[in-house]
Amino acid sequence: MDLNKQLTEDIKAIFRAAAMDNITEDLYKSICDKLHVVKMYYDMDLGGEDRYRNHRTGELVLGTKEVDKQLILYDSGKKGGLTKQYKYYFDGYEYVHAYIEFEEGIKEEDLDISIYDFCADMVYILASRQNMRRMLDHAESSDVLTGIPNIVYFKKKYHKMLQTYRPQDLILLRMNLRNFKYVNEVAGGNSGDEAIIQYSRKLLQMVEDDECVCRLGGDNFIVYVHKENLKKFLKKVSSVTISKLKTAPNNQFDITTWIGVSSLADDENKNFQERLNDANVACGIGRSRLKQDVVFYGDDLKKMIMQGRDIIAAFPAAVKNHEFEPFFQPKVDMTTGKLVGFEALCRWFHDGHFIFPDQFIPILDREGLIPDLDLTIFDETCRAIRRWKDMGYNPPRISSNFSRKNLFVPKIENKILKILEDNGLGADDVEIEITESTKDIEYDRLIQFVKNLKEHGLFISIDDFGTGYSSLSLLHNIDADVIKLDKSFVDMITEDKKSAVLIESVITIAQKLDMQTIAEGVETKEQGKALVDMGCNYAQGYYYSRPVDYKAATDIIKTNPFKPITE
């Protein structure tokens, strides 16, 4: 049989194996021996080093041995000489280099180039077909960015586990990384992807071989572990260090996470989707309402969910029926004891009892109803001021809070002015309290919001000063009248030198900018005296009074029961 016929038979054998997705290195031996080839290999752009690697072993899923980033199709082990390179393109982009290495002594003129070109093309086509099949199989069950399992693989493995274990033996966890956007802000979006990859690898190392980790997308993951391993896993995942990112090599990020847990009692039997929904709910409530790292789905949580639904359902009627009431906390000049203002704080009186703010505000916030609540309390506050004026009293200026969520409410400034007009009040009667912002887009809108209200003569105060975006920049760019020093600084003023220095510095700067300062959360005479010594004369807090209802506030306006802090 001549060489061409022998090669034809070898090629047919390779094609038959390719049809069964079973090309092995041995199949290339016959054809390579005949052509004096000692080694065939290629390299290719896989769109990322981790994209097509087994999430456990780290090996490529292509079924081809990898040595020094070379994908080996055939290697006789003999020493080679002349090497021919073949380039292949996709969509005009050079993405595969194939190499044929010949026996020592073979020269270019000894070769029938057409045969070798044909063989290289044939190997490229067959290897590409096999690779594509395996890459598609891998992509179907793996996360594109990280290479770890996706939800398809995760569900299959979970259901396979149920052939051996009871669902009660497995704990399902839903995870959301806390403040991961900080990594993107500090190191950039590409580093965010790199950090997710690094985090995913570390997460895989925390579970056993028959347990599973899955990335849902973004910074969200689900995991199942054996019940007896839960405590150990939660400890490991409580803080995961990410470091040595390409664009931030000197930064180290300690990643924590919100976790919702689905565990089953012996008499419970829920399917995978039901358990995932439970874990999702627990994770969401832990993040938005409870502020707890780990939350288990159970009867207490179900009761809370029902209460949340009741609150949302009751909200429209509560607004209509004036169930939301302002309680008033006095603001006092500590040097004279004179009442200089109130802050209006929201309380909800429903079905004969008060619902505490921490029970309804997070729920309304999650539903996007905080702007409606803020406007409602502002309107109720203006009604109270109107009543006091009609009774012949001259109430001090009263501040009302407006969340950052209001900044993007259409025509919010007009709505505020309309409420003032409807109640027959002037700009001097009220003060608008806004929280220091945390985002660039909010910061720019905050500047415009303040400017618009100031043009109509309203007083503006910056609440929780020192806890937000950029305090000094805020002082420079926003024409506020009052700075409210955050309680977290006041708490430490007599115990922590740094807090005292910071507060005194802010007070000094505010004075030079013709801005007032008022301290929040003053609870002791010692705190008050220290603030007065620093130049801050105004305060509010439990030392003077808790927030009180309309009747009690009326008595305060009539009697002014406060004394100088020095007495």
- For the record, the CATH architecture of the largest domain stands as Alpha-Beta Barrel
Unreliable runs: none
Spatially, the strands of the biggest sheet line up as 13-14-16-17-18-19-20-21
The Cα radius of gyration reads 35 Å
**What's the CATH topology name of the largest domain?**
TIM Barrel
CATH superfamily of the largest domain: EAL domain
Count of alpha and pi helical runs: 18
Question: Would you kindly provide a written description of the structure presented here, covering whatever features stand out?
Answer:
- The structure is a single chain.
- With 567 residues, the protein is an alpha/beta fold.
- It has three domains: 3-141, Beta-Lactamase, CATH 3.30.450; 151-297, Alpha-Beta Plaits, CATH 3.30.70.270; 324-559, TIM Barrel, CATH 3.20.20.
- Helix content is 42%, strand content 24%.
- α1 packs parallel to α3, α5 (181-187) packs across α6 and α11 (370-390) runs parallel beside α12.
- The model has no long low-confidence stretch (mean pLDDT 85).
Write the layout of secondary structure elements.
Blueprint: H1 3-19, H2 29-34, E1 37-44, E2 65-67, E3 70-75, E4 80-90, E5 93-103, H3 113-141, H4 151-161, E6 170-177, H5 181-187, H6 189-204, E7 212-217, E8 220-226, H7 230-237, E9 240-245, E10 248-255, E11 257-262, H8 272-290, E12 294-296, H9 299-320, E13 324-333, E14 339-350, E15 353-355, H10 357-366, H11 370-390, E16 398-402, H12 412-422, E17 430-435, H13 440-454, E18 459-465, H14 471-477, E19 482-485, H15 487-490, H16 497-512, E20 516-519, H17 525-534, E21 538-539, H18 550-559
